[in-house]
C-alpha cells in the first residue's frame, strides 16, 4: 500500500468516510472498510487505565500495519510484561469519527488509519517523550508521527502525509 499525501490521495486510497458531507459516518464506508482485528497483546485505555482493549477497530488497509507496529514494539522491549512494567501498554485507540482538534475538517482517525499511543508521554501540544525507538518502528512501517509537528502531537501515528 502506498502512503497517501493530501486529502485527494487519502480519499483515493482509503475512501470517503463522509461522502454526503453531513458530518456523519457513511454507512457504506464503515461496512466496506472498518475491521476489528485482535491486538497482539492487551493495551490499557488512556482514559481509564483499569480497562484494556484486546482489539483495534480501524481501516482494513491500516489494521495489519498497526498490528505489526505493536508486535514489533513488544519484540524490541522483550515482550508484553516488560512493556507493562515500563507503562508502554497505554493507547487512545484508532477509529473515531470526528473533526481535527480546533478544525472543521475530518481527523484522520475518521478513516481509521491513525492511532494514539502513549498519550502520557506524547501529549498534544507538548514536547514528546516517546522513546525514539518506538517512533522509528512506526516510521519504518510508513507511519508519520506527530511529535515534530509545529503543534506537537507525539502520541499520534498516521498512515498518510500532508493532511
Protein architecture, described:
This protein is an alpha+beta fold and 163 residues long. The protein has one domain (6-158): Muramoyl-pentapeptide Carboxypeptidase, domain 2, CATH 3.30.1380. It contains five helices and six strands. Strand 5 (144-146) and strand 6 form a beta hairpin. The longest helix has 15 residues, at 63-77. The relative contact order is 0.18.
SSE succession = HHEEHHEEHEE
CATH architecture classification name: 2-Layer Sandwich
Write down the CATH topology. Muramoyl-pentapeptide Carboxypeptidase, domain 2
The portion of residues assigned to helices is: 25-40%
How far is the N terminus from the C terminus? 18 Å
Question: What would you report as the Rg, rounded to the nearest angstrom?
Answer: 15 Å
Which secondary-structure class do the elements indicate?
Answer: alpha+beta
Query: What's the main sheet like?
Result: 6 strands, mixed
Tell me the total number of β-strands.
Answer: 6
Shape verdict: globular
Question: What is the total domain count?
Answer: 1
- Widest β-sheet, arrangement of strands: 2-1-3-4-6-5
Low-confidence segments, given as residue ranges, are none
* Beta fraction: 25-35%
What's the tally of helices?
5
Q: What's the overall average pLDDT, rounded?
A: 96
CATH first level: Alpha Beta
Task: Give descriptors for this structure.
5 helices, alpha+beta, Muramoyl-pentapeptide Carboxypeptidase, domain 2, single chain, 163 residues
Short synopsis of the structure:
The chain has five helices and six strands. It is of the alpha+beta class. It has one domain (6-158): Muramoyl-pentapeptide Carboxypeptidase, domain 2.
Amino acid at each position: 500500500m502506498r502512503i497517501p499525501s493530501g486529502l485527494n490521495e487519502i480519499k483515493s486510497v482509503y475512501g470517503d468516510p463522509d461522502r454526503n458531507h453531513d458530518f456523519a459516518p457513511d454507512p457504506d464506508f464503515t461496512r466496506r472498510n472498518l475491521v476489528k482485528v485482535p491486538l497482539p497483546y492487551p493495551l490499557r485505555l488512556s482514559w481509564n487505565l483499569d480497562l484494556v482493549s484486546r482489539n483495534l477497530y480501524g481501516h482494513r488497509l491500516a489494521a495489519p500495519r498497526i498490528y505489526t507496529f505493536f508486535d514489533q514494539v513488544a519484540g524490541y522491549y522483550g515482550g508484553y510484561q516488560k512493556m507493562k512494567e515500563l507503562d508502554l501498554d497505554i493507547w487512545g485507540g484508532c477509529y473515531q469519527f470526528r473533526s481535527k482538534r480546533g478544525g472543521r475538517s475530518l481527523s484522520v482517525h475518521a478513516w481509521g488509519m491513525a492511532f494514539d499511543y502513549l498519550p502520557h508521554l506524547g501529549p498534544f501540544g507538548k514536547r514528546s517523550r516517546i522513546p525514539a525507538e518506538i517512533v522509528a518502528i512506526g516510521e519504518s512501517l510508513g507511519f508519520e508521527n506527530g511529535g515534530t509537528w509545529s503543534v506537537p502531537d507525539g502520541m499520534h501515528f498516521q498512515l498518510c502525509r500532508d493532511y
